[in-house]
Write a structure and sequence with these properties.
By secondary structure, this protein is of the alpha+beta class. It has eleven helices and five strands, in the order H-H-H-E-E-H-H-E-H-H-H-H-H-E-E-H. The longest helix is centred in the first third of the chain and has 18 residues.
């Protein structure tokens, strides 16, 4: 069985998930990127529209379309029908083209990323005090104002980002509970960990978890077994690798998308207004 800190000692984790970020870290005003953000992200998003425009501007295709349309009215009618069908389809705003925008359907989510105008992908640690402060403050405001109305979606990626010891089995327990009982049970246990942070330790976390689980599942023994055997190491490693590729420096870190396109990254416990400005909510 792998050691509980083995995930954090992997090459992708050392140095980038070493501790909580300061409250003032990465404050974003008006949606601008951090100083530490990669230039590739900005240039990549600029390149895509240009590439699409050059493809659609191919003169041979335009000429062919004109000639075909001149043969009869039927061809024009078919094109018009296709346009109407495209217009009837709702746009898919699911985040894309970013390391953290993968496997979203398997993660705990509030709101619908496909239909919400904006999405926040959070990388967080249930043992992190700043993560708890965000969920007790700004997140409650954003949830009431935007998530409940369908304008904003929130995707949560749990990682054992700090060297607290108890967050490793806790993270495995969360993902096992998600598989067995769904998102409501996941959030219930996550909120329990946030509330009880100060009283949890590597020595007592499984006992405390086992005592709480009967409130939300009949499979408590299986959840504890998953925590002890670190059943979800692959999923956790994938998130750490994706976050490392995205340049993460600590937890909590938030990746912001609007209409599927990556906008910027926000680090640390920031106010609801920071997120509103960055996402133009």
């Amino acid at each position: 069985m792998p050691g509980r800190r083995e995930v954090l000692l992997s090459a992708v984790a050392v140095g980038c998930l070493a501790g909580c970020l300061d409250d003032d870290a990465g404050d974003v005003d008006g949606g601008e990127q951090f100083d530490g953000a990669s230039d590739d992200d900005t240039s990549g998003s600029d390149d895509e529209p240009g590439a699409t425009g050059s493809d659609s501007g191919d003169s041979p295709e335009t000429d062919d379309a004109s000639e075909d349309g001149g043969d009869g009215v039927e061809g024009d009618g078919e094109e018009a029908d296709d346009d109407e069908a495209d217009g009837d389809r709702e746009a898919d705003n699911t985040p894309r083209d970013h390391p953290l925008a993968t496997d979203l359907a398997s993660l705990p989510t509030r709101g619908d990323p496909a239909t919400a105008t904006a999405t926040i992908v959070e990388v967080s640690d249930v043992s992190c005090p700043l993560c708890r402060e965000f969920h007790e403050g700004a997140y409650e405001e954003l949830s009431a104002e935007y998530i409940d109305d369908g304008d904003l979606a929130h995707v949560y990626r749990a990682v054992p980002g700090l060297d607290t010891g108890w967050n490793v089995p806790a993270t495995h327990a969360l993902y096992e509970l998600l598989d067995r009982e769904g998102e409501a049970a996941f959030w219930s246990l996550a909120e329990f960990y946030y509330r009880e942070q100060d009283g949890l330790s590597e020595a007592n976390v499984l006992e405390r978890t086992e005592g709480y689980l009967p409130r939300i599942t009949d499979d408590g023994a299986a959840v504890i077994d998953a925590a002890e055997t670190e059943r979800h190491t692959g999923m956790i490693d994938d998130t750490i690798a994706a976050a490392t590729e995205a340049g993460i420096e600590g937890v909590p870190t938030f990746y912001l998308f609007r209409e599927g396109e990556y906008l910027t990254t926000i680090e640390g416990n920031q106010s609801a207004e920071v997120f509103e400005n960055a996402l133009s909510l």
